[in-house]
Structure of Aminopeptidase P family protein:
Amino acid sequence: MLMQTHEARLDALRQELKRRGLDGFIVPISDEHMSEYVGAYAQRLQWLTGFGGSAGSAVVMQDKAAIFVDGRYTVQVRDQVDEKLFEHRSVPKDTIGGWIGEQAQQGARIGYDPWLHSRQWAQATAKAAAKAGAELVAVDSNPIDAVWQDQPEPSPAPAIVQDNALAGRSSPEKRAEIADWLKREGYDAAVISALDSVAWLLNIRGADVSHTPVALSYVIAHADGTAELFIASEKVTPELAQHLGNAVSVRERGSFASALGAMKGKSVAVDPNYGVDAITQLLEAGGARVSFERDPTILPRAIKNPVEQQGQRDAQARDGAAVARFLRWIEETAPSGEVDELAAAAKLREFREELGNLRDLSFDTISAAGPHAALPHYKVDEDSNIPIPPSSIYLVDSGGQYPAGTTDITRTVWVGPGEPTAEMKDRYTRVLKGHIQIARAVFPQGTSGGQLDGFARQYLWEAGVDYAHGTGHGVGSFLSVHEGPQRIAKPSGGQAGTEQELFAGMILSNEPGYYKQGHFGIRIENLVLVEKRAIEGAEGDYLGFETLTFVPIDRTLVEKDLLTESEIAWWNDYHAQVRAILAPQLEGEDLAWLERHCAPL
């Protein structure tokens, strides 16, 4: 009989730990590639606790347990995880290592799966546990897998070729670039374990992780330009084998560990963020010399080539037509009070699917009505779903995966009847002003995203308010919707990517927001492309942003008196471009709606 309750699952895990001589075990949301989104087989934390967020961890001891999430998930964890079973702990104030140090007894053995954690994390947590006299123990196999009776198998979907006509560069070209880097830095090989890095390097895609078109696999890239791909044999089609060619050896995914152990005497680069602890353990045990270096594919992957840039423009234009049709539908149907959040998300997907080339959503649609819009990472499900209230704000953050590009757009709209409050209009217009400042930003080469973040917040700060998330993240080309290393965010607090220099060709989101807990939330998001900017008399090279996303921005919520003449000019120019790009794709009432919403402000 399957274990239906989380209490029964927790008890079964404790029995398994006792059988293995372990006093505790750490359960992250992670896979063997340190992915942001993981396959169903790797959703161990959700199975154990019920928590459905995308970031978090739990620690299970024999007499107590705790779950650790950051501020994005404070409300969600309260709704989904029984506090009688798991203490709720807040990151970064509380840490796993600190909690273990407080709770563990002298001599306690705390297990962790080295395939799900980085070396740096393992070392820091082991040090914290040691202060309490406890030991962090790497397990040979995950104890949750031993008790999860109906655990899904990893996806058997075949890997597919990403044609050079969409990729813009061939895999041999990319491998040669990585080989040059290896030789320059004095390495024999690099372990490429991030799934989107493997996909980019070999020009392959897959369907193994929800919303991210990647195939479960590893690559060892060598300094002579050859590579070894470790992937389940059922994923390798004749077309894929032909595409990879003789310079890429295809080996069973299960042989990856033994290949790492056979690199005696080799100098090997491993990414400290994406290379799990087990990779380093196996390399060191086999006699390899390990150095921690950023994955050499990450920066060239982030700097989109001209073909990828055009693909993104094409994908955004098609996606924009679908979103515009959806916004017209919301405007006309939601005031009845009969449309709920799930129905709205399903309708938006339907409009995207009508395009004919949608491969997947790029993330779970944030369809947030009323007070739910005040939760920046709200995820609607059957339990949380509510009707969109008339006379309220509705926020929808969504995106699609298309062969030519990945989209991500947020629109916040007023649902009638009636008028929004003065406070709503003030906050919305301040968010809009910040969005415009990022869109119009001009900055010298060498500027980081962290240096631009204040541009978006300044008008909210003037009113004594702020938002708790970053202003922009990188976006992949038919890959991850959250792609590093670049981001626009406050440079304090150790935010990864905020110190990364921005280069022409990088794509970021531009998404300032405002959230009044329990009342309403606002976010306006477009994607932007970093481009070179010619300035007469400039002393040095300068950059700016090309906006890629073209969908009308809600005008009912705008307080025009707060906008400057130049901001109004930006609005009118932007909507003229929206009309030019979307009008040829729309007809009838959809086109008439577009015309109204693109009229000058």
